[in-house]
Amino acid sequence: METILFSLLNGVIYGLLLFMLSSGLTLIFSMMGILNFAHASFYMLGAYFAFSFTQVTSFWFALIFAPILVGLLGALVERWGLRSVHQHGHVAELLFTFGLAYLIDEVVKIVWGKNAVDYRVPESLDFPLFELFGAQYPAYRMFILVVAVGMLVALWYLLKRTRIGLIIQAALTHPHMVGHLGHNVPRIFMAVFGAGCALAGLAGVIGGNYLVTDPAMAAFMGPIVFVVVVIGGLGSLEGAFIASLLLGLLQTFAISIDANFSDFLGWAGVTATSELGSISISSLAPMLPFLLLVLILIVKPTGLMGDREV
Amino acid sequence: MSATEPMLKVEDLHAYYGKSHVLQGVDLEIMPGEVVALLGRNGVGRSTTAKAIMGEVAPQGRVTFKGQPISGMESHQIARLGLGYVPENRDIFPMMTVRENLILGIKNMRATGRWNIDDMLDMFPNLKTRADTLAGVLSGGEKQMLTICRTLMGDPDLVIIDEPTEGLAPKIVHQVGDLIATIAKAGVAILLVEQKLSIALRIADKVYVMGHGNIVYSGTPKEFLERDDVRREWLEV
Question: What's this model's pTM, rounded to 2 decimal places?
Answer without folding.
Answer: 0.86
